[in-house]
Amino acid sequence: GAVVSQHPSRVICKSGTSVKIECRSLDFQATTMFWYRQFPKQSLMLMATSNEGSKATYEQGVEKDKFLINHASLTLSTLTVTSAHPEDSSFYICSVGALRQGRNTIYFGEGSWLTVV
Amino acid sequence: DAKTTQPTSMDCAEGRAANLPCNHSTISGNEYVYWYRQIHSQGPQYIIHGLKNNETNEMASLIITEDRKSSTLILPHATLRDTAVYYCIVRPIVTGDYKLSFGAGTTVTVRA
Questions:
Q1: How far A14 CA sits from the closest chain B CA (Å)?
Q2: How far apart are CA B54 and CA A99, in angstroms?
Q3: I want to staple A30 with a disulfide (CB 3.0 to 4.6 A). Which of A10, A21, A25, B49 is the partner?
Q4: Mean pLDDT, to the nearest integer, of B32-61?
Q5: What is the pLDDT of residue A2?
Q6: Cβ separation of B96 and A32 shorter than 8 Å?
Q7: Roughly how many angstroms between the first and final C-alpha of chain B, as a whole number?
Q8: What distance in Å separates residue B77's CA from the closest CA in chain A?
């Protein structure tokens, strides 16, 4: 079964509005979660590291005021795209890692398609 | 800066073994080799990972050369549902730092 769950799987929003995407770790607690973005026909690009109880760490070139990340509990991280524009339309994916049976394994959510119209 | 090199694409026949190569000539002693795949419009799916020994699970086998500069992912009996983009990624052995750097991957098409 799924280890990481994202919601919504698809969302359409109007330009200028904000949209929130949730990432839940179902099987274990996670002090860090990771958010990626993927444009059509491109690979995944890491956007930021979500840190439980503290500020997120953003990759170079990612606007922290535009992509708000909140990691309020050990099983939930949220990504809010503020004042969305059509160029923000993309596939957003989160991941969680854990040490299980002595091995570090990283799981990804199903992804969330954002379309800004 | 790409740490792995994979062929852009490859075709496989259904029912046959699919062998996916990956070069990671600059891999260091504290880095694992991870393989993921991404079926269209879905999040990446974990396949397998290893350090220096060969690994096998219910999905695939991972063969790592003795010098660790390259590896091969083997799908023993490819099916049409194995059509996906396959990513080979190297990652440091650091518990807690679980971010991954994705390259372009190999687009694998399994044909009937």
A1: 22
A2: 20
A3: A25
A4: 94
A5: 73
A6: yes
A7: 36
A8: 23
Question: Which residues of chain B make contact with A95, given a CB cutoff of 8 A?
Answer: 44, 98-100
Asked if omega into A8 is within 30° of 0 (cis), the reply is: yes
Examine the pLDDT at B1 and tell me if it is beyond 60: no
Chain A with chain B: Cβ pairs closer than 8 A: 61
Amino acid of residue A88: D
Q: What is the reported pLDDT for A1? A: 67
Mean pLDDT per 10-residue run, chain A (117 residues)?
90 97 92 94 95 93 96 94 97 90 87 97
Determine the pLDDT at residue A85: 97
Q: Which of A96, A104, A98 is nearest to A51 (CA)?
A: A96
CB B99 to CB A110 under 8 A? no
Percentage with pLDDT > 70 across chain A: 99
- Nearest CA among B45, B44, B52, B55 for reference residue B24: B52
Q: Evaluate if residue B2 carries a pLDDT over 80.
A: no
- DSSP of chain B, one letter per residue? --S-B--SEEEEETTS-EEEEEE-TT--TTEEEEEEEE-TTS--EEEEEESSS-EE-SS-EEEE-TTSSEEEEEESS--GGG-EEEEEEEEES-TT---------EEEEEE-
The amino acid present at B101, given as its one-letter code, is S
